[in-house]
Write a structure and sequence with these properties.
Elements: E1 6-9, H1 19-34, E2 38-43, H2 53-66, E3 83-84, H3 89-101, E4 105-108, E5 111-114, E6 120-125, E7 129-134, E8 142-144, H4 152-162, E9 167-171, H5 178-187, E10 194-198, E11 201-202, H6 220-223, H7 228-236, H8 251-257, E12 268-269, H9 272-285, H10 288-301, H11 314-324, H12 333-337, H13 339-342, H14 350-356, H15 362-374, H16 380-394, H17 398-410, H18 418-425, H19 427-437
Parallel strand pairs: 1-2, 2-3, 9-10, 11-12
Antiparallel strand pairs: 4-5, 5-8, 6-7
């Protein structure tokens, strides 16, 4: 029977939270929540020269955006602050001296090295199965540097012991570190935690994910218009499978389904097109009021926001969002796709004008504008029926009139359903745009 679960995410603040670290944090968080356990955030900042508070803040901001809350922290930092290794230096030094006194470590030019015993070191990895290393290939490694700072191997073991970590879930790049840490656990006469080394995240070219593959800092993704719900869903399925063909999950559903046994041993590929798909699906699931709150900052940045969208024109605004969202992949796209609704002026795409505003269509287009002026009721079905009747009676292709009207009303060759667009743009603005567009026919 599984006992109390205690897991940790232990980033180094020498860089911002990237998607690989975020995925590791997510796996730990899901496992803790699934088993009613504790999720600890520990900042490994003993590399004073390369660590910075900006990076710490970036890590914290990224976890907050993803909704990955941690459960405890030292009182000195207030409730639920992360642990910082830089505040625990004396503890590491004390543990190093214990090993020296017991003959398991020794001083070497001011530093302290661990004595690697003969034989073999093995551990059971929950992803890869049994892993064995021959100790003859492991040198006597430094655990305390000459400046009194611990190396990674000592600090991580001391912290995991002190914080009673039961499971270490981390990236495959750490698997080669594990035998040294297992040796330290044995030297301290303690049982190591269970290890689960998860596959690395690769770019589409099967090379390790880096800046050349696009944004890798997690806090770039909200700026690019991604929802945290979508990112969590996407990251969870990078190297883990719930079994079956399901892909769309809420956070609670992921918690209820997550198991370490579901982690695969093969590398996972970060596919931006797949992330876009997840983002679109999660936007479609959002209540419109919630979606409106996500869209507002992007409309403000684009100079398209009106306070009327909160009250006087709220229902209309939500209708526009509902019309646009089946075509939108990122939240910022609402600003661009919404311009024909939120601005009075139309910005014409030259290619759309060239393709659809043919001189021979000018007269039938003008006559159709006159029909549109008096069509009742002013709703999509009635407008479409009116256009098709007019086209048939005038010997004009309905499609040609539809394309020309779309360009006139939106400035573009593509949009949501034309007649739904016309209704939301409104009769007065639609007719004014069609009148202005007469000049486009040459």
């Amino acid at each position: 029977m599984l006992g109390v679960v205690r897991v940790r995410f232990a980033p180094s603040p020498t860089g911002y939270l990237h998607v690989g670290g975020a995925r590791t944090a997510l796996f730990n968080w899901l496992y803790a929540r699934r088993h009613g356990g504790t999720f600890v955030l520990r900042i490994e900042d003993t590399d004073a020269e390369r660590s910075s508070w900006d990076m710490v803040q970036g890590i914290v901001d990224g976890l907050h955006w993803l909704g990955l809350d941690w459960d405890e922290g030292p009182d000195v930092n207030g409730p639920h602050a992360p642990y910082f290794q830089s505040q625990r230096l004396e503890k590491y030094r004390e543990h190093a001296q214990v090993l020296v006194r017991e003959g398991k470590a020794y001083a070497d030019e001011g530093a302290i090295r661990f004595k690697v015993p003969e034989g073999q070191t093995s551990f059971e990895d929950l992803v890869h199965g049994p892993v064995r290393f021959e100790n003859e290939h492991i040198e006597n490694f430094v655990i305390l540097r000459s400046d009194g700072h611990p190396t990674y191997h000592l600090s991580v073991v001391v912290d995991d012991l002190d914080m009673e970590i039961t499971h270490v879930v981390r990236g495959d790049d750490h698997i080669s570190n594990t035998p040294k840490q297992v040796l330290l656990y044995q030297a301290f006469r303690r049982t190591p935690p269970a290890f689960a080394h998860v596959p690395l995240i690769m770019g589409p070219d099967k090379k390790r994910l880096s800046k050349r593959h696009g944004a890798t800092s997690v806090m770039e993704y909200p700026r690019l218009g991604y929802l945290p719900e979508a990112m969590v869903n996407f990251l969870a399925l990078l190297g883990w499978s719930p079994g079956g063909d399901e892909e769309l999950f809420t956070r609670d559903e992921l918690v209820s389904r997550f198991t370490l046994e579901g982690i695969s041993g093969g590398n996972a590929v970060f596919n931006t097109e797949k992330l876009d798909w997840f983002n679109q699906q999660h936007m479609l699931r959002l209540p419109l009021d919630d979606l409106a709150a996500r869209v507002e900052p992007f409309l403000r940045d684009a100079g398209l926001w009106s306070e009327e969208f909160r009250d006087g024109r709220r229902a209309w605004f939500l209708e526009v969002l509902a019309l646009l969202r089946p075509r939108v992949k990122r939240v910022g796209q609402f600003a661009e796709d919404g311009r024909p609704f939120f601005e009075d002026a139309v910005q014409y795409e030259p290619d759309a004008v060239k393709k659809h505003m043919k001189p021979e269509l000018r007269e039938p287009f003008d006559a159709w504008r006159a029909v549109l002026m008096s069509t009742e009721p002013f709703e999509p079905a009635a407008l479409e029926a009116a256009l098709r009747r007019f086209a048939e009676s005038g010997g004009v292709k309905a499609a040609s009139l539809i394309h020309a009207t779309r360009v006139a009303v939106t400035g573009r060759a593509a949009s949501p359903g034309l007649f739904e667009v016309i209704v939301l743009v409104g009769r007065e603005r639609t007719l004014a745009r069609m009148t202005s567009a007469l000049a486009l026919f040459g």
